[in-house]
Amino acid sequence: MAIRKKIIAGNWKMNKTSTEAKTLVPEIQEKLGKFDQAEVVICPPFTALQTASEALGTHSDIALGAQNMHQAASGAYTGEISAAMLRDLFCRYVILGHSERRQYFGETDALVNEKAKVALKANLRPIVCVGETLAEREGGKMEEVVVSQTKGSCAGFSEEDWNNVVIAYEPVWAIGTGKTATPAQAQEVHALIRKTLGEIAGKAVADKVRIQYGGSVKADNAKELLNQPDIDGALVGGASLDAASFVAIIKNGSEK
Ligand code: PEP
After folding, report:
1. The whole model's pTM is what?
2. Protein fold of 7-254
3. Best mutation site among 175, 220, 225 for ligand 1, i.e. most ligand atoms within 8 A of its Cβ?
4. Active site residue 170
């Protein structure tokens, strides 16, 4: 059975200016201290990546990630950012297919899959997000949606690619709503995603790929959620904007 190191990522969404990042990043570093029990990632908006990258420095325990990228290498795509541009700022991760991208920007599984493959080629690790809406859950479609998003967004990855892929299960009804999936509800879906990975890529891949939970994760629910057998970390939105609450989630979530 593969040992999966927990990965806890903060998705700042469209929050924090570059100037604000200049104080928030050192605050997180100071409160976290030397820490190797989990991998920690922060994902500021594009405009704060340079500042965050400089504040983290080259040997930081905290990795840098972006929240999206365009699939083309370069060219006439006004307003877009390429994988190479992210690598140039020392990003190691990129969140892809977040439900807000799917909902407001029409991103499909096929597009998420294309972006993920481009990211992997550029040495960026995709955090591929999947998750059902409340209507889908209440309509008995949770399994169908999560399985088809997982298969569609992660199609055609090579054995080597899978070493660098993280999946985030984020039930849309739990994002920014204060409604968290119960540990049992989250575990059930994580086990389903792992089973799906087994079907599409084999048991060894299913055993090693890390699956984060996201949706109103807070310091007081992190430990119980992250102690579920198939939950390998958290993707944290709102609570990652404050150094104390983000670090409390990291520390509580890493406790056995
Ligand atoms: C997210 O947007 O990825 C998220 C999980 O948000 P929140 O923690 O605020 O629910």
Report:
1. 0.97
2. TIM Barrel (3.20.20)
3. 175
4. yes
Residue 170 CA: nearest ligand 1 atom is: 5
Cα(75) to centroid of ligand 1, in Å?
32
The CA–CA distances, whole Å, from 145 to 82, 149, 244 equal 29, 6, 35
Ordered by start, the domain boundaries in the chain are: 7-254
For 36-92, write each residue's pLDDT tens digit: 999 999 999 999 999 999 999 987 899 999 999 999 999 999 999 999 999 999 999
Could you report the per-residue pLDDT of 94-140, keeping only the tens digit for each?
A: 999 999 999 999 999 999 999 999 999 999 999 999 999 999 999 99
160 is a catalytic site residue: no
Ligand 1 neighbour 172 (Cβ under 6 A): no
CA angle 196, 217, 3 (to 5 degrees): 50
Q: Contact, 235 vs 128, CB < 8 A?
A: no
